[in-house]
Structure formats: structure tokens, C-alpha cells
Amino acid sequence: MNNPAFDLLMWARGPGFDIALVIFLGGIILRVVEIIILGRKKDMAPAKGSPVAQGIKTIFSRSFPRPGLVKFAPITYVGGYIFHMGFFVAFLFFAPHIAIFEDAFGISWPNAGRVIIESATALAVLALIALIYSRMTDPVRKALTTFDDYLVLILSGLPLITGYVAVNKLFGDPQMMLAVHILTVEALMVAFPFTKLMHAVTFVMARYYNGSIQGRKGAES
Amino acid sequence: MDCNTQNDKTSPSSGASSDGAMDEVMSFVATGNASPLLHEIKHALTQLINDGTENIIDLGAIPFAPGDDRILEDILGTGEVHAILSLQGESHVRESSIPGVWRVDHLDEAGQQQSRFIEVTFMPDILKTQREDAERGLETLAERLGTLDDNR
Amino acid sequence: MANDNMTNKPMLPELMKTHGVSRRTFMKYCASLTSLMALSPAMVPRVAHALETAKRPSVIWLSFQECTGCTESITRSHAPTIEDLIFNAVSLDYHHTLQAASGHAAEAAREQAMKENYGNYVLIVDGSIPLDNPGYSCIAGISNLDMLKETAAGAAAIVSVGTCAAYGGIPHANPNPTGAVAVSEIIKDKPIINVPGCPPIPVVMTGVLAHFLTFGIPELDELGRPKAFYGESIHDRCYRRPFYDKGMFAEGFDDEGARGGWCLYKLGCKGPTTKSACATVKWNNGVSFPIEAGHPCLGCTEPDFWDNGGFYKPLSVPAGDYRKLGLAAVAGGAAVGVASALLSKAGKAKAAKAHETVDAHDLEK
User: Fold this and answer.
1) Of C13, C72, C139, C220, which shows the fewest CB atoms inside 10 Å?
2) Same domain, yes or no, for C209 and C283?
3) Does pTM top 0.90 for this prediction?
């Protein structure tokens, strides 16, 4: 007799993860290498400032919104920050997740208690809902939205929701819900190189490029 | 905090049976089930006094940690009666310091805990002599008297 | 051992009289058994009545591809209890390890018991059944498959004791060289109670038997296990749960966390996905259980627990050999990335030479 939930869990932890990892890592490296090799058009004019210094500065300065922008699009900024921070806390400071890094790289760091993790998860999901809502109701943004945008929003939210359900055993067979959680993460990994999720890696390069272009002209960015 | 469980082991170093320190840590692990249980006992005692209804609560059915036991001991305490029964292993029937609230603990022949109950009653059934046993007792007595008379 | 005393007389009053067991002792036993079966104390009179009126059943125990651990476990009641009385008084008409007879006499005893009690005997099975080649496991020249089918035909119910009989167990584990399967894969027309565990807790086995003898088949979950003993996961009843909730984990077997009795999740504990009574009923008459002894739960009551990625790999960690694959993916991705980029560059140069134009729609491509 087999337990279908167990079989699914073992597939998710085994072949499922292997496939997702290959696509995830292979895809990201592929695109990053492409971007670097394709490079930028050479600017023949003499440089007026330091491109490198400004480029690096911009990587960090873009983490804080320009004055006035938050008032301009509050839901996007506030929701965006809450979502990202909540997601990272729930992902990086939950002990079972740290165990994965420990198994893969041998490194580990202190974990946070259940209350913090659950609050972070809940806040992240709420922020996500607010972001989807604002995207669907604001006419300009709605016009700009493509399938990619909705897909990424949903794929980002599913691991948070299913993780919460699995850990707290809210409903369903525990093994099945854990399998579902792992599968949603794998879906996120598979979609990563093909969607705007790549921003998680390319934001560094994009910010550097923008900063260095301005820096070369002697302007601040 | 009671420190009377400290023994001469200063650190929990002996793994498997670290009594003192581990027990001390565990005695503060409570599930929070002691309070509702005690309220249930109070309700049962009220019923007993009002209309004589008896109640039995199975302690094995509720998740109970050593911390909860401590709370139970503190509140119920020890009373006037402690009966030790030899029934294929000992059974301890104790009235707590709250008359009418009895603790019945069954152990097996190896002294390991078999089951624990709280009985809210005027007299736990297991203390009473059972009719079948009395009937068999009569037979035994008759036999022994017969022997006594024969040997006169 | 199969005698003509498969009488219709209730067995327990006789036994009690013979062994000088008082009714008071019987009351104590009924109270403990009711508690063990997770029934309310109000059920004690019913349990008592059922035990008093239970008839002496014939039991045939078939051992197939097993390690005899389940028999060892069930016979580990040091202190004689009434469960022992019932179990020992049950007419155990056939059991490889416990019976005195051997050879043809043993098989004859089995056949006689089957004939005399056809339709009424309890069949207990431990060990899995090999399907690839019947010759892999035979008793008295009869293959396990044939013996199971033949004996199951006249059984009232079947109890699959141990994970091997219930789900295939260790013979069924990757690569399953004998084609081992569980009893339920072969017998489809009889009620089967699965009592998994490697081995199952002794008191769970006797408790299930006692329940079956008095009340019939207990309530079963979707894997055929009695809900009374397999309804809760280890994780939900574990005394170390407060440490899990607070995020205090042992990282090794001898570190500060391990000695402090912290949660064993990071050492591979399968408690969250395992349903069993170990955390409440415990082993050796309630002394301890693996987690209390400092070892993570193996998940031995679940099907395929041998193939769950490793006993010491935490549940959250991928079970396969992903490191090599990851490195290959990085290398492959880089190689393909370089190739693709160079191709694009060549295409760009060609387009520039041919003075091709670009408009906004091209950016969407």
C-alpha cells in the first residue's frame, strides 16, 4: 500500500527539486552571462566623472525612494517593502529553511521564533493582496500589466500561504500540505529565469549600469 | 521556584537519564491544560453535592506535561485517605485535600504507570467490595471453616 | 495447541477464577484498557461487559518476509497482565516462533484450526510477501502468496502487524529485489487492520487485539490504521514541542541543545509527518520513546519510511543528490549563456551592417 501524499512529498523533495534547481540555476546563470557578454555600447566621449564609484553608490541608494515618490505611489512602495521584507524574514529565518542552507553549504545562522515568522508571513501576504488590488484598479498600471505580472504575484504568494498552512496544520493531510508547499516553491524556481523575477539578480546590474552612465557624465544618480 | 530537585550533577551532561536538571526544566513545561481541568473538577464537585452525580476524568486523555502535574499537585494537595490496593500491581487511591476529589493511579506489576483518573465521588467504586468477590469469599470462608472444624 | 475447547463459553470469567483474579482487579484492568483505547471513562462498563462475554477465538499467525521483531515486541510484557491472559489464552493455533510443534505436525495444526473454525478465526500476518518469485520465501514448501490466500479465505479478519505486512516495510524498500508487497495488495475481500511500526508498540498490538475481540474492528484511518493509536502525529504530542515552537534545535548528537533536550528537527526527525502513539503511550510500559532518548523519529509507521530521503536529513531538505546537479546546471548555464550571447552579438553585427531598423515592438520580442 502506498500513501499518495508521501509519494508526492518524496517526489517534491527528490526529482522535483532536482529539476527545479537545474532550471533555476542554469537559467539565471545563462541570462546573467548573456547580459554581461552582450555588454553595453561603448561611449566614445571622454569621461567627466567616475562611472564605477557612482555605479556602486547607486546600487545602494536606489534602495531608498526619492523624496515625494512614496506619496506619489504609496501602495506600491509601502506594499513592496513590506512584502519583500516579510518574505525574506519568513524564508531566511525559519529554522527548517536554514537547515536547507546548512545541508547545501554548511553555513547556518540564528533562527527566529514562530511568532516572528508567522507575523512576517501574514504581513507579506496582506501586502501582496494590496499590490494585486492596486494593480488591477489603477487604470494606467492595469493597461501596462501582462500575464507575467500576475503570474509572478501569485507564484510569490503561494509558498507563503501554503507554508503557513502546512506548519500550522490548518487543513488537509500534513504530508500532502508539506508536499504542496515544496511544489509551489519549485514552481517559483522554475518560473524564475523566464519572468521578471530575474530582478532579484539583475537589480544589481541594472542599478550599476544606470549609476555608471550618470557617473560618467559627472552627474549624480 | 523549587530547587529541591537539584542533585550533585551541576550540568545536564549525562544525556539519557539526566534527572535533576532535566526534570527541573521539564517541570516548567506546561500545556495550559491544568486550569481548564481544575475548573472541570470544580464543576463536577458542584454536581456531586447538588444531586449526587459522580464523574470520572481520565488524565491519560489530555496532553499533560510535568508542569501541569505540578499545578495539579499544588492545588489539589494530599488529604486524609491513602489506600494502596494490590491488584496485579499497585493501585493508589488517594483523597486529595479537597474532599470528594479522589486520585486513582494504577500501576502494573513492574511499577510502571498504567492509567490515572480523577474521580469526583463520595466513594470510588474500586474501594468497595464487589459482589462477585464477596460470593467467592463466602465459598472460601466456608471451606476454611470446614477445615478448622475438621482439625478440632 | 488447537484443541476441541473452542467452546462457546465466555473465556474471561473462567480465566479469572482459575488464576484467582478478583473482580476488583478486573475493574482496574477495564479502566486501564478503556483509557488505552482512548475511550471515555463512561465506556468502562461496556468494555467490562464485552470482555466478560468475549469468546475464545482461534488465532493463526503467519510469518512471511519478516525479522521476527514484531513477535519479539508483542511478547515483551514482563509483568503479567490481563492482556497477557487474553493473549495467551487466545487459542494461538499457529505461530512459527512460539509453537512447540514443527514440520508436518505444525502445518497439520494450522490446517485443522482452519477447518474447525472456518470463517471465525483471526489471521495475524507479519512480514511482506514476495511476488517476483514465489520461491524467495516458502514455508513447508508452500509459497507465502499461496499460504496467505489459502488462510485468508476462511478468516474473519486480518491484522497486518508491523510495517512489512501493512505496507511492505524494509523488503519493499528501494530497489525491492523480491517484489515484496503488503498484505492489502493481495487480499481485497476481507477486513484488514494495519498495525504498522518497526516494530509496533507491544501495548498497541495487544490493545488492538483486545479491541477487536470485544468490540470488533476499530475505527480505521485512510491507511487502515486504528485511529485510537494512529490518530495523532508524534509532532503534535511530543513533549519537546515547546522547543520547536521557540526555535531551539539540537544541531548535533552531543551538543548543548541535545543535552538540553531540545527539538530534533534538524537532526532529521520525521515526527511532523508520522502518525503513531509513541509520544503518549511510549515504549517498555511507558518508560521512554526514541525522541525522549535523544534520537530523531524515523517515521516507522508510515509506508516507505526507508526511502524518505535518509533518517538524518531534515524534512525540509531536498532528499536527492542535488549538489552535483546544481554545479552541472551552473556550468551548463554559463556555457549556453556564452554561446547564446556570442550568437546574439554576431547577429547584432550583421544587423548593423545591413542597416536594419528597430522599433518599439521589437523590444517586446
Assistant:
1) C72
2) no
3) no
pLDDT digits (tens, 9 = 90+) for C37-63: 777 888 888 878 877 776 677 888 899
Contact C223 A28 (CB under 8 A): no
Q: What is the CATH number of the domain that holds A166?
A: 1.20.950
Query: Can you give the pLDDT at residue A104?
Result: 87
Q: What is the sign of the dihedral through the CA atoms of C164, C170, C172 and C178?
A: negative
Give the gap in angstroms from C-alpha C217 to the nearest C-alpha of chain B. Answer: 21
**Cα nearest neighbour of A182 on chain C:** C316
Q: How many domains does chain C have?
A: 3
Question: Would you state the torsion angle of the CA atoms of residues C139, C109, C167, C297, taken in this order, to the nearest 10 degrees?
Answer: -100
Instruction: Please tell me if residue C303 touches chain A, with a CB cutoff of 8 Å.
Output: yes
Counting the structural domains of chain B, the total is: 1
Residues in B closer than 8 angstroms to C229, CB to CB, are none
Q: Does C318 touch chain A (CB under 8 A)?
A: yes
Helical segments of A76-219, H only: 80-92, 95-105, 114-137, 139-144, 147-168, 174-191, 199-217
User: A21 and C303 in contact by Cβ < 8 A?
Assistant: no
Q: Evaluate whether residue A206 is within a structural domain.
A: yes
Query: What pLDDT, on the 0 to 100 scale, is given for residue C99?
Result: 75
% of chain C with per-residue pLDDT over 90: 32
Kindly indicate the confidence band of residue C82, based on its pLDDT and cuts at 50, 70 and 90.
low
What residues in chain B have per-residue pLDDT under 50?
A: 1-18
Q: Which residue of B has its CA nearest to C42?
A: B56
- Residue B114 in contact with partner chain C when CB distance is under 8 A: yes
* DSSP three-state, residue B64: coil
Task: Compute φ and ψ for C356, nearest 5 degrees.
Answer: -75, 150
Find, in chain A, the residue whose alpha carbon is nearest to that of C183. A1
Q: Which residue of B has its CA nearest to C78?
A: B110
Q: Do C316 and A100 touch (CB under 8 A)?
A: yes
Provide mean pLDDT across the span C341-360: 85
Quick check: helix, strand or coil at residue B88?
A: coil
The tens digit of pLDDT for each residue in A74-90 reads: 888 999 999 999 999 99
Domain hosting residue A204, numbered range: 4-20+68-216
Give the integer Cα–Cα distance in Å for A120 and A100: 20
Chains C+A touching (3+ CB pairs under 8 Å): yes
DSSP, collapsed to helix, strand or coil, labels residue A81 as helix
Query: What ipTM was predicted for this assembly?
Result: 0.77
Q: C333 CB near a chain A CB, below 8 Å?
A: yes
C142-143 vs C138-139, strand pairing mode: antiparallel
Adjacent-strand bridge partners of C288: C283
Mean pLDDT on A13-19 = 90
pLDDT, one tens digit per residue, over A91-121 is 999 989 998 998 888 888 988 888 899 999 9
Q: From the list C184, C302, C320, which residue is nearest A18 (CB)?
A: C320
Same domain for C242 and C224: no
Domain of residue C351, residue span: 318-356
Chain C environment of B85 (Cβ under 8 Å): 24, 28
Q: Write down the pLDDT at residue C166.
A: 95
